[in-house]
Known about the structure:
The chain is 40% helix and 8% strand. It is mainly alpha-helical. The chain has a two-stranded antiparallel ribbon with strand order 1-2. Strand 1 and strand 2 (9-10) form a beta hairpin. It is globular.
Amino acid sequence: MYQSATGITCDLMRKSHRRCTEATVPGRQQWAVATARSTSTLGNIEINPT
């Protein structure tokens, strides 16, 4: 499970990830950045709150 900066928790699964991204407009960029920064391990995504 991953809790985004918006306070919404989502499963780190591709389907749930996509659904969460579409559902959380403010968190969309956060998720995009996380996915871009993660090399290949979706299970170990960490975002530093700025």
